[in-house]
Amino acid sequence: MLSYTRTIQTIDAHTGGEPLRILVSGMPPVPGNTILEKRSWLKAHRDDLRCFLMNEPRGHADMYGAYLLPAMTPAADFGVIFIHNEGYSDMCGHGIIALGKVLVEMGYVERQIPLTRIGFDAPAGFIEAHVEWDGKRAGNVTFKNVPSFIFMRDLEVDTPSFGKITGDIVFGGAFYYYINAKQAKLTVKPELVRSLIQLGAETKAAVMAKVRIAHPLEPGLDQLYGTIIDSAPNFPGAEQSNVCIFADREVDRSPTGTGSSGRAAQLFLRGQLALNTTYLNGSIVGSNFAVKVTAPIKVGPFDGALTEVTGSAHIMSSNTWLLEESDPFPNGFFLR
Questions:
Q1: 92 tagged catalytic
Q2: Which of 169, 194, 211, 290 keeps 20 to 30 A from 243, CA to CA?
Q3: Rounded Cα distance, 177 and 167, in Å
Q4: Alpha helices of the chain — where are they, by DSSP H?
């Protein structure tokens, strides 16, 4: 008889082509009084769980996941920690959309017609989502994000392969460096993904070497998560195509939820997007998120914006993951 040392249940979904593996059973007790404390504990003591779910042979270099935890604040229904190939995220918009779809569609929450509200305690702050529910199926998910702001404008960096690149550092739930692909003689197309990965990796490294990033209100949010590269739309229906290269050269297939918030805030604060005007942000594979700025706000010394992002997700599978006692790869491996 086989002997198993771990049994974990997940539900796998995707948002605009970007996966989300949601751990729904098998989570160990996680100490901490806040989501950031719980994330720190997991990173220090149980990173093997992330590796087990994200790495090969159970995952892959571009896998993404979420841990559902008890709520930490009165307004929340759940706590959530997001995971990827390199570690842990501050926030994840495509993840909130997929979670909303799964939790309503599969009856994990009390459902209301026409909209079901779900509150999440995320590392970046409180997130409120509303999920369409017609009595049979869950539809689009809209979430109100944490405040976005431009941290640094027109930052120029030198890259080994593409020369000088200029962009803005913007916070949309995580910090990103926003650049236009034309500077590197590229456009956001699937067939150019290897060059886009190289551009994202080189610009991220250059920004991190040049700038010390710090959130003005939350010292736990001080990392550059990735580079967001935009171009003219390469699929119908969007106002731009964009791709986020994040973590360890991971490629977001969705338009990126936090990235869409940051993009809308960037345009609004630069006078290029009006209040309450919907902006359709396109991904590298042709999926779209709708985003709008709902109000201006101050974030410490920075002018910022409140945003709402709308998208759709689809459930793919329900899985039970087993770790056989003799498995030589309990933490998996990372291979490109």
A1: yes
A2: 211
A3: 6
A4: 35-45, 47-54, 93-105, 193-210, 257-269
| C-alpha separations of 199 from 161, 188, 240 in Å | 8, 11, 18
- How far apart, in whole angstroms, are the C-alpha atoms of residue 193 and residue 245? 10
CA angle 94, 260, 218 (to 5 degrees): 85
pTM: 0.97
Give the whole-angstrom CA distance, residue 229 versus residue 247.
Answer: 15
Could you report the per-residue pLDDT of 174-195, keeping only the tens digit for each? 999 999 999 999 999 999 999 9
The residues facing 144 across adjacent strands are 128, 308
Torsion of Cα atoms, 234 then 252 then 94 then 259, to 10°: -70
Please answer whether residues 85 and 91 qualify as being in contact, where contact means their C-beta atoms are separated by less than 8 angstroms. Answer: no
Q: Bridge-partner residues for 228, per DSSP? A: 178, 244
Instruction: Exactly one of 30, 42, 92, 224 is catalytic; name it.
Output: 92
